[in-house]
Write the structure tokens for this entry.
Amino acid sequence: MNREVMNAKNVIVQGITGSHGSFHTAQMIDAGTNIVAGTSPGKAGLSVAGIPVYNTIADIKKDMPVDATVVFVPAPFAKNALLEAIEARIPLVVCITEGIPIHDMLEVKNRADAAKVVLIGPNCPGVLMPGLRKLGIIPAAMGLPGSMAVVSRSGTLTYEVAAGLTARGIGQKYIIGIGGDRIQGTSFVDCLSLFQNDPDVTAIILIGEIGGTSEQHAAKYIAQNITKPVYACVAGHEAPAGIPLGHAGAILGSIDESANAKTAALASVGVQTFNSITSLVQSVK
Amino acid sequence: MRLLEHEAKAVLKGSDLPIPSSQLITNIYHGSLPVVLKSQVPVGGRGKAGGIKIVSDKGILQTTIDAILALPIQGYLPKTILAEEVITIERECYLSLLIDRDSATIRLIAHPEGGVEVEQHTTDFLNIPITLQSIDDSAQQAAARLQLPVDLVTPFIAKLFATFIRSDATLIEINPLILTKNNSLICGDCKMELDDSASFRHPDWKAYENQASSANFVILDPSGTIATIANGAGLAMATVDAVAAHGMKPANFLDIGGGATAGTIIAAFSKIMEFPDIKAIVINIFAGITRCDEVAKAILEAKKSITKLPPLYIRLAGTNFEDAVSILASENIPTLATLEECLLAAKAEVTHE
């Protein structure tokens, strides 16, 4: 993932007239995001927080360029909304919607990859670049402009880290929640490469959780590519095996998927690991 | 959601995939012998646990049925037994379809030796991606690995793949896939998992016994002393981790998700009240899409409707947090600034008792 795609100027909101869409459109504008339009099929001509509503992305693109879209469309319709954004070749698609069927996401993920569209999420809080913009729902008051970069699979732990850093006066360039579903767009590795290649970023925080092996992939990538300090915490040390915990993706199957195994993998490549967010936030420099 | 074997096999039968002839019984069997009696519980390892018996002798039929119905397997007691014809087995194979999260593909897994010992093989499974376009090619590879004729395997895999897609399945495992004496295939057992997120387009799923269990409430320790409520899976996990790190016994994991209402909180409190040893409830909310003021109103309402609630230690942060604190303060319910403070206060309560 390159820095250019994160500097989205013209942002649209899909599902802008829904309760989440309209509430967070106003919040994103307050956080400095340049929202230029929104979609809601059949509601063209309305406006939300002063932003014009269109029926489709194609209609918006007749009037203005679009660099990014934030998707609040309910799960049963999310696949079509995401495919619409991918077909329109919007470079950055951030999907907040939770509960999208896995088979729908298989198709979306493969289409996004083929079209070279950066998809963040689904079921994620999105991106906050404090003082610049936010694409999603991370409360902007939690952030402080600076040079730390945070990537997390958990929405609420993303907020927790941001608030903790801000309370200590440690600012952030990127706070990215990538979501915890089994099929997700952007990975830890994609974000790590963004952070490594951005000279503004001085240190990296990675928040993982049980389920899957993406933390192990991250550890391997860190060993080979990352020269900046990395701090990490993996949630779910007390998790029982085989039972899904909230997130569709947070299920502890094999031993590799446990918090202990992931923490060990990260520690083995020089990442400073912590068993609680509180101790991580207190220890970063 | 994991289906029971008879439910999974009904799905296969609906796709014209071969299954043994069978009937579902609750306590009496009137069919012919011999018969295989299979405990209908949603877990593996039934055979080794004594939940699968072949009966040839009418004299022991009823006692065997009664014994299976009385035998819990991994905590599950069967409500029904699947009574199946006995298949004459030439060979047992293994075939499954699943979703691989890393590659975002559906994968076809096959092995020529199936049955209960299949997990002993770890490295020599065929494991290839399969798509609608690649079915013929994938089936050819599977036939080679299974050492079965292509014209037997290809239609089987085509039907299985169509079922996987149509059913929003995340796993269909046929083990054993039985090759019969007369060279046909039949699904000896089937494990099927369906994607709970897709339930909105499958109204028929409401008929399944093992209803989408609430993934959001998980019992960790029935004798735990601290109950936890959090929003978001990560925060809920981290809250449980922090309770344990403070030397206390977390009873549960609970993610109330986004957009909590009074109903959500009342349901959470009611569930927690079922645990006899709870001394304190730690509520840890960091609101993004959730709004703290709505959570606060919900807590007030829930507190009014449930008496004898253990002490609450509440930490609220994020969207509309100031409103929430004043809403709770108006009813003399204190909030604490950090989870750490909640845990220390809860610990004092637990040790004090």
